[in-house]
């Protein structure tokens, strides 16, 4: 019988493999960030911003819902089956994007993309949390999210260059097909189940409260528990502004006369800084705490969006993209780490799923809000609106969230999970 050990060093091989798998998940997402908005305009003749953003709305709604089920299903059936289901859902995506005869096919492909990202990305997060143990979760989440978003950035740049040279279809999406084939193969043959690591940690954890009902986990993570619910709203607003960047910034850059290659570089700069920055912010939050990074990061994002709203040159937009990436890097891994700090191992996967439901619901809210405001008052008005919401979110975290990292928290309030009746449903 294999001895289960927690920690990054004890599980280095599997952890590294999961980092690679998540990079491939991110690559699938990145293959759309430069190409799809120009495709909406040039080949499908969608003039309204809201119409062009329907694919992000479809993606966000589907991914948000799938995130919730990913946590519940991984508790019930194991992590690896859910990961494999995510890759299987992705198989039709490249063909649908390449041969789509109308925009409805693109929307349908993005619903499958939402299923893929919700199941596969959520599960790699949960599996890394299982393996890492309680002490280095900031580092674990920094490595996970860095791999995913560096792949988003690299693929956005690559597909922009491919589209400029070979056209919007089919060549850029052949890269998507290669990512899916490799990710499915690695997950099927080499990734191992990690649910036993969560059970091992739960068995050694001093506190009770590990068998809450899913409805109770949803309530705690959504509004009842101050740290969990603060993280959920901040995650939603973070991805709200990412949905804006994904859908409207390429249109703003194109209106200023930038080429597809230049748009690809700008589209890649923000997630590249975001990805690299998490290699610093994740482990730093293990030392200095989660809350300072979340508050500072949200306010930095708001400032970056304000620069985007007033700028009209590629140089200023590049500066804003770097600041937006840095702010997102401060927020992204620390929000996930704060969820895993508070949640008991017995329901941690479900809490991550609920958090990611709200966080990725931000894509849908951002696409809808930004599209409507842009149609009514222009892109810059939409950017200002999202900037204000992002600043308000950071201030709410500052007022309501307590520090969650056990090494830095001192006399902070914790939710009394013992007062709930025990349940076994998951």
Automatic annotation (TrEMBL):
GO cellular component terms, semicolon-separated: plasma membrane
Protein name: MFS transporter
Membrane topology field: Multi-pass membrane protein
Superkingdom of origin organism: Bacteria
Annotated GO MF terms: transmembrane transporter activity
Transmembrane region(s): 12-29, 49-70, 82-99, 105-126, 146-165, 171-191, 243-272, 293-311, 317-336, 382-402
Alphabetical list of InterPro entries matching this protein: MFS, MFS_dom, MFS_trans_sf, MFS_Transporters, Sugar_transporter_CS
PANTHER family: INTEGRAL MEMBRANE TRANSPORT PROTEIN (PTHR23517:SF3), RESISTANCE PROTEIN MDTM, PUTATIVE-RELATED-RELATED (PTHR23517)
UniProt feature coiled coil, ranges: none
Alphabetically ordered keywords of this record: Cell membrane, Membrane, Transmembrane, Transmembrane helix, Transport
All copies of domain Major facilitator superfamily (MFS) profile, residue ranges: 1-405
Subcellular location: Cell membrane
SUPFAM superfamilies, per database record: MFS general substrate transporter
Broad class of where this protein is predominantly found: membrane
């Amino acid at each position: 019988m294999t001895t289960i050990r927690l920690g990054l060093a004890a599980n280095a091989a599997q952890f590294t493999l999961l980092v690679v798998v998540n990079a491939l998940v991110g690559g699938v997402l990145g293959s759309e960030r430069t190409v799809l908005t120009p495709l909406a305009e040039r080949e499908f003749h969608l003039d309204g911003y809201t119409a062009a953003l329907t694919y992000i709305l479809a993606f966000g709604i589907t991914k948000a819902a799938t995130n919730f089920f990913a946590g519940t299903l991984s508790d019930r059936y194991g992590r690896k089956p859910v990961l494999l289901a995510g890759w299987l859902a992705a198989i039709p995506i490249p063909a649908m994007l390449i041969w789509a005869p109308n925009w409805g096919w693109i929307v349908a492909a993005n619903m499958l993309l939402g299923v893929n990202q919700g199941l596969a990305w959520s599960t790699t997060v949960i599996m890394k949390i299982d393996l890492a143990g309680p002490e280095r979760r900031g580092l674990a989440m920094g490595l996970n999210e860095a791999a995913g978003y560096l792949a988003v950035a690299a693929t956005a740049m690559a597909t922009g260059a491919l589209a400029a040279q070979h056209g919007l279809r089919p060549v850029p999406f052949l890269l998507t097909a290669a990512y899916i084939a490799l990710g499915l193969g690695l997950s099927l043959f080499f990734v191992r189940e990690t649910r036993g690591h969560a059970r091992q940690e739960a068995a050694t954890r001093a506190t009770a409260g590990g068998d809450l009902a899913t409805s109770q986990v949803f309530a705690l993570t959504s509004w009842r528990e101050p740290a969990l619910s603060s993280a959920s709203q901040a995650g939603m607003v973070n991805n709200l502004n990412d949905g804006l960047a994904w859908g409207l910034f390429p249109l703003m850059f194109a209106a200023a006369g930038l080429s597809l290659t230049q748009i690809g570089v700008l589209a890649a700069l923000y997630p590249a800084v975001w990805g690299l920055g998490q290699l610093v912010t994740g482990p730093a939050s293990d030392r200095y705490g989660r809350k300072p990074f979340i508050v500072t990061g949200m306010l930095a994002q708001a400032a970056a969006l304000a620069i985007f709203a007033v700028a009209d040159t590629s140089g200023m937009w590049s500066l804003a993209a770097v600041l937006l990436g840095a702010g997102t890097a401060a927020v992204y891994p620390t929000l996930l780490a704060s969820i895993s700090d508070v949640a008991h191992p017995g329901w941690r996967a479900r809490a991550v799923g609920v958090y990611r439901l709200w966080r990725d619901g931000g894509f849908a809210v951002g696409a809808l809000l930004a599209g409507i405001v842009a149609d009514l008052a222009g892109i810059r008005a939409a950017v200002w609106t999202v900037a204000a919401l992002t600043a308000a979110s950071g201030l709410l975290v500052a007022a309501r969230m307590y520090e969650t990292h056990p090494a830095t928290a001192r006399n902070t309030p914790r939710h009394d999970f013992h007062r709930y009746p025990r349940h076994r449903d998951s």
